[in-house]
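Pasting as-is:
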Amino acid sequence: MSGHSKWATTKHRKGAVDAKRSKLFSKLARIITVAAKTGGDPKPENNASLAAAIVKAKGYSLPKDKIQTAIDKAFSASAGANYEEVIYEGYGSGGTAIYVEALTDNRNRTAADVRAAFTRAGGSLGATGSVAFQFERRGEIVVAKAGAPDEEELLMAVMEAGGEDLEDNDEEFIVVTAANDLMSVKNALEAAGIEVEGAEWSMRALTPVAVKLETVRKVMRLIDNLEDSDDVQEVYHNMEMTEEIAAALDAD
């Protein structure tokens, strides 16, 4: 299992994601609205950020009507609040690096929520830049093993499409791309007849750190606390998520 894939990190927590589906859908819709408004065009073929946001939303099964409603909202007369992206950096149990992406219309509210989440889990907020250097922006594309070519053939297709790497993540493969190449690689794979289940940008740890199971449990509780905030979109960490740790978390 990948130690730093966003998809690998959340896979074992699918039940928790399902339980929070309504909140998840609201967050995905907000991302689409902001991408549409920022890009200035409701058509994904003319708005790369919107295209990527839609692909991500589909990967988490956001219904088509909700996607369209989110796009329409960006250009309606009653578009509502103006959201801005805010980054928070901090530390979890054992000095684990935590990188948080949020979309907010009220910085004070979001900062208070994030700080409270860290405090409840025994972590601490850091200054801007305190952990960002431990991560890099990359694209991640999910290809289900069922119906996919064998690993060697798929790797060749990934390289021809302009991808950087292919990781085996249990029931699926994770195609890693440069941040700017996410959509072009996805489109090239699909053109080659390879079915893509999801695609999104991710902050990947440059050097995942081996930690004890109890530390992982504490950090995952911190992540749950952070994701309870409506404003928090993504939370990344630098823990090495081994197969043994994932199995232990599944058993919890």
